[in-house]
């Protein structure tokens, strides 16, 4: 088989035109959108909802999409021009090979992230393609690996989403903070990170959406944002976050200054009444109430608290500026034999 030359970026920075030879015959007639729909059905990509479940890693079966796109990009020159950007649209280092014990995942993911980061740094023709980065961070070789990873992110001109599936162990917070110190990623608009990866927040001041993985440590992400004190005027959406009572009582006024344009937020059962009063542009709130394993008096107490919290959220929405329609969604998890119950209402 004739070797396929790498796709190069034109001097203007644009992708090269797809060759027209044989481009209108046989399988080349299939639109790229249709092929992607087929891929989504057969081998779907990792979703944000899966990442929010705070997995350590994903099984090797989730590499199927990457393997298919790589095979398509190596088929011929026409399909290489079509599928190489799709292959590198997402940089993914969060899966382990089948057949290995789970406890050995660090020995795979750490070196894989270092190899991919260094390889991408040396492949300038691929930089414009990468828009989403989905990784698991491990302490094995962290100082060297994270330095290469942080440098790699700096050269990606179209990067808009960083997803950290998991950052194993407490000490990862220090490693991440050191690696990202002084770096900025002005194109990043979406962050999905665990609490101990908060060191990356200062590098992404133009972020518009932040989600936190792991339901037990969501308050720490808010605390980290208040500690760094950097305003984020673009930030409009926060998902899976929580507010501790101590944080709200002492520093909630700073939240309005740091996140002045927040319009949508998702809060949990730890929500403290009065917190949302500082957000003057608020229009959409999702309130998650967890009732699983609660019985008798404890269940009644949780429902009573939820009613009080819901009333406070409604008042915050009513007091917010603007004439846009305002919505509150309450989701009861574990209600009625572990089913999920939704309540959606417009707040006037």
From TrEMBL:
<protein>
    <recommendedName>
        <fullName>F-box domain-containing protein</fullName>
    </recommendedName>
</protein>
């Amino acid at each position: 088989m004739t070797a396929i030359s790498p796709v190069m970026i034109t001097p203007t920075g644009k992708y090269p035109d797809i060759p027209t030879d044989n481009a209108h015959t046989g399988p080349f007639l299939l639109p790229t959108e249709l092929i992607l729909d087929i891929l989504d059905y057969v081998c779907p990509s990792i979703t944000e909802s899966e990442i929010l479940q705070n997995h350590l890693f994903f099984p090797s079966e989730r590499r199927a999409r990457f393997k298919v796109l790589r095979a398509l990009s190596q088929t011929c020159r026409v399909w290489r021009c079509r599928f190489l950007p799709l292959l590198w649209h997402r940089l993914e280092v969060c899966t382990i090979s089948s057949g290995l014990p789970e406890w050995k995942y660090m020995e795979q993911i750490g070196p894989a992230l270092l190899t991919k980061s260094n390889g991408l740094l040396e492949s300038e023709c691929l930089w414009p393609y990468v828009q989403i980065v989905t990784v698991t961070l491990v302490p094995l070789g962290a100082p060297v690996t994270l330095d290469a990873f942080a440098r790699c992110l700096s050269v990606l001109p179209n990067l808009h989403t960083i997803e950290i599936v998991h950052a194993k162990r407490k000490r990862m917070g220090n490693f991440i903070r050191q690696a990202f110190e002084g770096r900025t990623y002005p194109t990043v608009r979406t962050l999905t990170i665990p609490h101990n990866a908060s060191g990356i927040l200062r590098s992404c001041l133009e972020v518009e959406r932040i989600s936190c993985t792991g339901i037990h440590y969501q308050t720490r992400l808010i605390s980290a944002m208040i500690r760094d004190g950097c305003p984020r005027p673009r930030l409009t959406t926060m998902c899976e976050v929580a507010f501790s009572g101590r944080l709200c009582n002492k520093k909630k006024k700073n939240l309005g200054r740091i996140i002045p344009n927040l319009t949508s937020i998702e809060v949990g059962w730890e929500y403290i009444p009065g917190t949302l009063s500082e957000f003057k542009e608020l229009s959409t709130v999702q309130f998650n109430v967890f009732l699983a394993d609660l019985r008798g008096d404890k269940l009644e107490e949780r429902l009573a608290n939820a009613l009080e919290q819901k009333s406070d959220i409604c008042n915050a929405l009513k007091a917010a500026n603007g004439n846009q329609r305002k919505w509150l969604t309450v989701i009861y998890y574990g209600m009625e034999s572990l089913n999920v119950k939704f309540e959606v209402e417009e707040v006037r």
